[in-house]
Amino acid sequence: MGRSEHEELTAAQIFYPCMQCADIFFLEADICQLGMDQRKVNVLAREYCDDIKRKNKPIILSHHMLPGLQQGQEKMSKSDPSSSIFMEDEEAEVNVKIKKAYCPPKIVEGNPCLEYIKYLILPWFNEFTVERSEDNGGNKTFKSYEELIADYESGELHPGDLKPALSKSLNKILEAALDNIPTGADNIF
Question: Is the pLDDT assigned to residue 171 strictly greater than 70?
Answer without folding.
Answer: yes
